[in-house]
Amino acid sequence: MTTARTRTDGVLVDRYGRVARDLRVSLTDKCNLRCTYCMPAEGLPWLAGPQLLDDDEIIRLIRVAVQRLGITEVRFTGGEPLIRPGLVRIVSAVAALEPRPRISLTTNGIGLDRLAPALRTAGLDRVNVSLDTLDPARFAELTRRNRHADVLAGLAGAVEAGLTPVKVNTVLMRGINDDEAPDLLRFALEHGYELRFIEQMPLDAQHGWDRGTMVTAEEILAALNAAFTLTPDPTERGAAPAETWLVDGGPARVGVIGSVTRPFCGDCDRTRLTADGQVRACLFATEESDLRGALRAGADDAELADRWRTAMWGKRAGHGIDDPSFLQPARPMSAIGG
Predict the structure, then answer these.
(1) H/E stretch holding 195
(2) Cα–Cα distance, 58 to 77 (Å, whole number)
(3) Averaged pLDDT for residues 125-142
(4) Rounded CA gap, 192 and 31, in Å?
(5) pLDDT-derived band of residue 87, with 50, 70 and 90 as boundaries?
(6) Packing angle of the helix pair 148-161, 136-143 (nearest 10 deg)
(7) Cβ atoms 185, 247 nearer than 8 A
(8) Which domains does the chain have, with CATH numbers?
(9) Does residue 52 sit in helix, strand or coil?
């Protein structure tokens, strides 16, 4: 019988032949915003300190992933990763690995203008910044915080520090900001950002997601095509989650991540590590595999790598959102990491 130990050396492969090369690492479940599509106004019960991986544990597990499992890209997520006190040190340690992975960060941008120079010096390559609206009042309604100007400052600071290309992630919600698609693209073009629209996914803490009210990729593209000429991007998509189009002939591009209506599970190359040391084979997985317990019990790197391979071998063929038996993960996006 084929086992995790005999299947392969050095890669994270699943039963369908997909190989994970992209590691998403959640550094915290905490966030300084309260976005309506993510968590309730009062926030959530945060993980207790001892449950979280410390900086050295995170660095060690990333080293195992890079040097023993073939990971070539590391993206830090949250919650909000900029509020992790050891972020710069973690980035520096990962940048020093051989072979060196590409390193990126997904953030809400608050405080990025201050941290961007240190992160760039530490070895961060680029950032994705979430911005759902150009209207400060609407931003306050969506996030329950008056921090719109801070996000714009973070975007500008990322460019100034050289964390390019700076990508902007946007979620459109029906009746709230679904009228802003063309304006958001004009804003991105003006500032040299790469815009990515993301379909709203069933990952909210309130479990209030409704496919019937979700703004679909088709609707987003229709709104953009009414104001711009979009042509398919001839660049090979590969395992990238976004389908991209050239805007008015290029070279500028816009992307749409249709996780729900245009799933890309067959090409997925991602594995996820939560802030409390759990491996998730899929963003929508309902099972997790514990590395923290093994690490703290004295497991060596070979055992940690083998446990990780076993976790990924069980990855499902797809997220199954269209299946009547689909169950939303118990953890919300803030606790999983994007």
Answers:
(1) strand 194-198
(2) 13
(3) 96
(4) 27
(5) very high
(6) 100
(7) yes
(8) 16-336 (3.20.20.70)
(9) coil
